[in-house]
Amino acid sequence: MPLRLIFMGTPDFSVPTLLELVAHGHEIVAVYTRAPKPGGRRGLQLQQTPVEEAARKLGVPVLTPKTLKTPEALDAFRSFDADAAVVVAYGMILPQAILDAPKLGCYNLHASLLPRWRGAAPINRAIMAGDAESGVMVMKMDVGLDTGDVAMAERLAITDNMTAVDLHDRLSRLGADLMVRAMAALARGGLQLKKQSDDGVTYAAKIDKAEARIDWTRPAREVLRHIHGLSPFPGAWAELENARVKILRCELAKGAGAPGEVLDDQLTIACGEGAIRILELQREGKARMQATDFLRGVKVEPPMRLA
User: Fold this and answer.
1) Which of 255, 267, 200 is nearest to 227 (CA)?
2) What pLDDT score does 41 carry?
3) CA angle at 275 for the pair 273 and 277, rounded to the nearest 5°
4) What are the tens digits of pLDDT across the range 98-141?
């Protein structure tokens, strides 16, 4: 039985869930997203969010309120007479009155295995912390920060070759399928909820650009996970010949030396323990490129160092 749904989301991560809900016959009565922001080469053009672009193509009404805390916002939300709301990386706090408005509640898709990595940057933090796995969960929302009762979950292994964008894309697709199954269960009255554990709670703080500088004194696997957890944005960086270089992808390599030391002509760099080999990088003001292409134009060899 299809549901009348309000969809609330903003970035690319949210779009597959919106499209899958439509494809499975649910009626999206409205889409809430963040307001367009200045963009383009000169910052003069207003750029819609990926969710708004998708909703416009579907012909669904789009709302971009600055707040949901006013009586007017609540009246507008209630006017859609939705069975439930689906929230995927919306980026705005939902007050209790909004959470209570849909008949069956509001359901959030979160990109972690709650209660680990509640908060803003669960994908990045899971990789940076060296976690062996991540996943997606559907929870019924309450006013806390990702504290609601969990309905369904899917797990996904994190490998050393996985960057934040790799994990993002896989979890986005996995989450879309999970939310469709959750809404099907909700429609037939069979969605079961389980209270989150109080053990193992961690918080995924928003990424600060100050974290992006690479610390070569750390063991190689920690350096690799730091690099991959920040790829492609904001991008972990080091200095080569006094110029900043973002490192976007790497692999563990054999070798030892002083931290940051260039060990060969293939961009193998020594860490506090072990070494990594750079596979993809980006110089300031340049496009990202494969290390092999970079080395055709720039000679990097011992005894050079990355600071």
Assistant:
1) 267
2) 67
3) 165
4) 999 999 999 999 999 999 999 999 999 999 999 999 999 999 99
Are 39 and 32 within 8 A, CB to CB? Answer: no
Is-above-0.85 flag for pTM?
Answer: yes
DSSP structural state of residue 14: G
Longest dimension (CA), the chain: 68
CB 101 within 8 A of CB 21: no
Tokens of 74: 């609540």
The closest of 144, 151, 138, 30 to 96, measured between CA atoms, is 144
**What's the length of the chain?**
307
Phi and psi at residue 111, in whole multiples of 5°? -90, 55
Task: Select from 125, 113, 129, 120 the least CA-distant residue to 174.
Answer: 113
All residues at 6 or more sequence positions from 94 whose CB lies less than 8 Å from its CB, including other chains? 8, 68, 87, 106, 141, 143
